[in-house]
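Late entry, evening session. Most of the bench is empty. Finally got around to the prediction I had been postponing all week. Sequence below, unchanged from the version circulated by S.P.
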Amino acid sequence: MKTTNVTPEDLAGSVLSVPPLPLKSDLSLAEAECGRLVRHIEAGGVTTILWGGNAQLQHWPVGRYAEFLAMAEATAAAGSWVIPSIGPDYGKLLEEAKILAGTRFPTAMLLPMPAHTDPAGVARAVRDTVQAMGKPAIVYIRQANYIAPEELGKLAADGQVCAVKYAVNRPSFREDPYLAELVDSVGPERIVSGFGEIPAVGHLDAYHLAGFTAGCVCIAPRLSMRVLAALKARDIAGAERLLEPIRPLEDLREKLSPIRVIHEAVRLAGVADTGPIYPMFSNIEARHHAVIEKAALRLLEVEHELAAMPAAAE
């Protein structure tokens, strides 16, 4: 597991996979299945594992957080970068930050608090968490004006924030005044698009962000890495073509539930048995399984085709 300081090169070097969390029927960690999922992701060239919203870590008990961290470290390859998430409320941020202080993880992502915040309060929470953790944080932004761009820039300049995950929904991902301000304050090399492969096209094309996080990468890591490579090469048309096998599953995630669908899709594709989803979500209804399975298996089929290609063809 990567334990060195986080750099812009780390953000740009790989898609940041955001896997669901495999669990047993009693909601304990299914470590063997977690390992299967991580190895599948790594086998496709993805070197970053971000355990966050798809894993429902905002609901994971503080008393079992060390158990989760041990699993996250044990299942990763030596060169992989593992990012645990903490929070989102202030009390949980501080409690989990204290646990992380005694670990080898170089950073953690602060899950977004969707309500009962203001920009100054969020900035204070980031500073206090970093002090308790003794390592810089990744700030996850899901709503406009969550934190003032100039304040976030100061936190980054002071070494308290090493990266930003940005996922504010807009009618056009190429037109976002708040993101433009964040880019000016923090720098595009420290910001990743946080919506998956499809919105990443607009974000990276218009704002030159470092990379993107994704859920479908858990099924088709080689394909997702090809999308990243195309965007880095400014081949927007090529990236759009590569998205075609991803769109059916992403459309289902948008229509039904991003988290519930990817949790089930990983299982239905045979990548890993994800088991029950952690409350307060529930597993998606069986009537949706056939269409999710069809989209997931098609995505996996493309992944297998890429895996079978000679290295020169890739």
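Two things to note before I forget:
The beta strands are 16-17, 48-50, 81-83, 85-86, 108-110, 137-141, 161-166, 191-193, 211-214.
The CA atoms of residues 1 and 73 lie 7 Å apart.
Will write this up properly tomorrow.
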